[in-house]
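Many groups now describe folds with learned vocabularies. In that spirit, our science desk offers one protein's residues alongside their backbone shape tokens.
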Amino acid sequence: MPESLLHNAVLQWYAEHRRVLPWRAADIDPWGVLVSEVMLQQTGVARVLPVYDGWMRRWPTPAALAADSPGEAVRMWGRLGYPRRALRPHATATVLDTAYDGTVPSTLAQLKALPGVGDYTAAAVLVFAFRGRAALLDTNVRRVLARWLVGAQFPASSVTAAERTLAESALPAAPDVAATWSVAVMELGALVCTAASPSCDQCPIREACRWRLAGYPAYVGPPRRSQPYAGTDRHCRGSILALLRDSDAPVAQDVLGEGWPDAAQLSRALQSLLNDGLVVQRCDGGLALP
């Protein structure tokens, strides 16, 4: 199937099946896109939606967030996971408010210079907020491209230069079309070309999929390990933050121990939260959000 027909097939499928999400609305501004990209890192859409809605109602502009405390950002973040991410939009909002007159810059270099904004997030904002042309390699896109163009069930554990070149070569030439294509391939991976149970009969490019044509060869790379959570330091950190989020006043350190059985792990987790700036210790020894 010619490449142009493949592009059209994916774009038509997306037009018919795309989910209605607030960060895809026609009137969404770059700030809304940036916030969504930070929240969606390693977190599913269903968990992000209620937090995103509350966040944007409370802080619809960078200036609104910059005027509030980092602790309120952590509180609003709730249980999205990886709470250090909550500090990134606050730090970014402060820079945007002071250095960019409250607007999100539109060049890749400026976006990458913002606090906590890496290569992927910068490229995603460029594509989705400013309709730029760039290859976006999130988990869903990487899986679709690995199956369609390489014939592998799953991509390598980390992005390679060859994979990035392949992704760039698959982009439509026109920037505006490429931007829609990028989100369409993400949606295809999220809804059809899923990790565990792909619905190949619903895929618009199934006739060109090398993995399907090869008879669905099994993944032969390093073991794909799932990350445990219960009982880990990450779990302990989350427990501490949940207690502080739900409290209107600083919490005494000995109170933390009532909810966690391993004192050494609790101390280690608390120290890491203090080091990350997610928790502060008041003059009286009480612990609170920043």
Summary: Strands lie at 280-281, 287-288. The domain at 19-130 is CATH 1.10.340.30 (Endonuclease III; domain 1). The first helix runs from residue 3 to 17. The CA atoms of residues 14 and 184 lie 5 Å apart.
